[in-house]
Amino acid sequence: MRYDGSHIYPCMSKVAAIIPALNEEKTIGGVVRTLKSSPFVHEVIVVSDGSTDHTAQEATAAGADAVQVLSTRGGKGNAMAYGLTRTDAPIIFFADADLKRLNVDHIRAILEPVLEGKRAMNVGLRDRGRFWTWPAKFLPLIGGERALRREVFDNIPGHLRQGFKVEIAMNAYCRANNLSYGYVVMPGIGIVRKMEKFGVLRGFVEYIKMWIAVGKAMFEVRLARHLLRRKT
Question: CA-to-CA distance for 101 and 27, rounded, in angstroms?
């Protein structure tokens, strides 16, 4: 019998997990099943963002409560926003579709500070080994695994939800409105690396492109930070 987290948090808000996915048929099933097994997650929504493989079918087979198929690719931020239209949950848990070794303890560790009201948003910092995890704490929090109050995403202007701007804008929204946010390290978790997806050479190029895009996104969000302040 599946129980929920109300025995720990009697007034616990509904939590919806949203997974934006693009051609992740090999890993999406495991991510969905883990989220479904968490006592803190009430529903799991997968948004297949123009996938050309069996991502949607694998998500359905794994027990996702809703699987939305977008015929054309609109980008991660667009898929995240679409997922929110399918739920009224006040607490959102975003997760990437290419995770490996995600478990219910990771989910709980990310969600607890938000459920307890200590943070408006909490981000999962992926385990990169002893050498790389420590410096990662000082880099921009762009991790795809994060729990947040719904307002953090809902109040991000549409043009700041594109590419890496979506994660950086959520961080900036919290700072602009004096909302507490932070991170927790997720031991043992991993993702399908770009080298695995594209090969060594192209994977290396993709990582360079990614960090260039992150730098550009930080600059663009900083220029638009006045748009992130709540109107009083």
Answer: 10
Residue 108 CA to residue 119 CA, distance in Å, equals: 14
CA-to-CA separations, 216 to 118, 167, 173, 221, in angstroms, rounded: 31, 13, 17, 9
Sign for the pseudo-dihedral over CA of 164, 35, 58, 63? negative
State whether the Cα torsion 81-83-85-89 is positive or negative. Answer: negative
pLDDT of 157-201, one tens digit each?
999 998 778 999 999 999 999 999 999 999 988 776 655 676 677
CA distance 202 to 194: 8
| Residue 200 buriedness (CB in 10 A; 0-12 / 13-18 / 19+) | exposed
In Å, how far are 27, 134, 223 from 218, measured between CA atoms? 29, 21, 9
The count of other CB atoms within 10 Å of the CB of residue 131 is 7
Maximum Cα–Cα distance across the chain: 51
Q: What letter does residue 25 receive in the DSSP assignment? A: T
Write out the H or E segment, with its range, that includes residue 206. Answer: helix 200-223
Tokens, residue 196: 């695995």
Q: Please name which of 164, 137, 33, 44 lies closest in space to residue 94, comparing C-alpha atoms.
A: 44
Say what the pTM is: 0.85
For the record, the structure tokens of 84 come out as 């929110």
